[in-house]
Every structure is written in C-alpha cells, then in structure tokens.
Amino acid sequence: MKRTRSAVLAWTPVLALSLAxxxxxxxxxxxxxxxxxxxxGDVTMVVPFGAGGGSDLAGRxxxxxxxxxxxxxxxxxxxxxxxSGAVGYSYFxxxxxxxxxxxxxxxxxxxxxxxxxxxxxxTDFTPIMKLADDFTLMIVNADSxxxxxxxxxxAAKSERITAGISGITGLDNIVFTLTEQETGAEFDRVPFESxxxxxxxxxGGQIDIxxxxxxxxxxxxxxxxxxxxxxxxxxxxxxxxxxxxxxxAEQGIDVSFxxxxxxxAPGGISEEARQYWIDTMEAAVETEEYQTYIxxxxxxxxxxxxxxFVEYLEGNNELLQQVIGE
Length: 326
What we know:
Elements: E1 29-31, E2 37-39, E3 43-47, H1 54-69, E4 75-79, H2 86-93, E5 101-105, H3 108-114, E6 125-134, E7 137-141, H4 149-156, E8 162-166, H5 171-183, E9 188-192, H6 195-203, E10 209-212, H7 214-223, E11 226-231, E12 259-266, H8 271-284, H9 288-296, E13 304-305, H10 307-324
Parallel strand pairs: 3-4, 3-5, 8-9, 8-10
Antiparallel strand pairs: 1-2, 5-12, 6-12, 6-13, 7-10, 7-11
C-alpha cells in the first residue's frame, strides 16, 4: 500500500482543565562509538490514553516496529490517562530534554491547546513522524432501530440521542460536532477515557451510538454484535471487511475527518537525538511490523517525518484556529 502525505481539519470544544508541568530530568541518552546519540537503556513510549483504544494500539505497535528496525532497542509502553489526554501530555511536557522518552500522539496534541486550558501546545514538543491517518465509523448495537447515519441525524433533531466519545477533545467528538454543524442535529455526549471503555458502554446499552476507529471495533463488527452505519471518510475503504460501509457523504452528510497517528519526542532534546529518532522511525515504517499495524487497524499509510511533520502540524493548527479560534 502506497504511503502519501495528507492534511486534515479538526474541531474541538473547550476543555476546562489546566495542568502545570514540572521541570525535566536526566536526558537518558549517551554518546555512541561514532560520537552520535544513542539511547541509554530501555526507551519508554507514553500513551496519553487508557488501554484498549486506538492510541494504545498505536503506541504498542510503534514500540514493536521500532524494536524490529533496531534490535538494540527495547521499548516499554506506559499509559498515563486522564483529562482526555491532558494528563499524559502534561507529564510529557515536564520531561523536556529526556531523550529516552517518546509519546504516541494524535489529534489531541492540537485539540487540547485550542481549548486554552492546558499549558502546552505542539511547539513545546519535538515532532518525529506522522505514521498514518485513521478515519472513524458511526457504530450502533446490532439491535438498534437505526439503519443509516441519516436515520440517526433525523432522530437527533427531535429526540435525545446519546453519543459515546473517547475523550472530549478527540476524533469522536470532532466528527459529531462537524455532523451537528452540517445537519442541525444535536447529540448528547457521554465521554469515556478510551475506546475500550466506549465499546463496553455501547455493548452494555448505555449509549445509542458511538464513533470508533475500525481497529477498535473490527472484532465486534465481524461477530455481528454491532453494526457500522457509515464511515466519516472521503471514500469507501479498500479493505474487504469495510468495503460495504457507505460514507457519510453518500447519505447526505458531508463530513469526513482523519485522526493522525504519530510519534513525538520531548522538547529540549539535542539535534543529534532528534535526528536519531527521525532516522529510527523512517526505518520503522519500512518494516513488516508497520505494514501489519496499518492493515490490522485499517489505516491509511500517510507518513511525514521531521520537518514535514512540523509543517503538517502547523497547517492543521491554523485550520483549527480558523474554526474555533474565537
């Protein structure tokens, strides 16, 4: 599958959460035999969300592909959930200069600062690589009366529809907000800290609909426990398991949005360490482990490394500011 660059537009509401960061500690790096940077000991991949969701899957898969690209590295994953990602990102902010630390990043990197209630933005960190784009599906229980996304939208104009979201600044909330703006419907949000919790709530009948990435819900789709009403993507998926799911646009809802998946290093690291991690991730996306991650999670392999990733973030941040800057 060919990898390309892409840019997406996001929107998010205000998050009333402010977390102060502490000062960073030991860099964790060392000088190699050739005078360049090398990590010292194990590397930690921070996931700013709970276990079981798309961000957790991304962080663990990224660790695996890094290890495949460099057999001298061992990557452990550490979940720091809370505040729709704010807890993990704020912890990461406090680790400025730590060259043995990475973070599995996504849309919250841009969405949280737009809220104006956190003490960081993307410029406080070191962008390493954008790995992929991840579209989302509107999901209902198998016994739901709704057959299409258009059915849900029409119902939401006159009755209460509870919509489960994973974090109040993430992809799920964005697509529901864009759908509201496009159609005039209103959804009653119920936030959860991870895709795993969101799936459990949907299966338990606590919510009417959910927005979930294919990789988070494919097992339940294949078992028939849930149904996908539409995909918030520009075109239908090429993947056989998802090819029959119509886009929202096909149902008269002109909304598409892709959450990016990527890797950050802390701010304040050396240029040698930055280049080391860029080189490592460029090697990582050439591994079979990367291809497996893309295919198993039904992602679009659109990559951007180093300065290209910075440009991607700059462009999307400008678009976000235009939408919700006032």
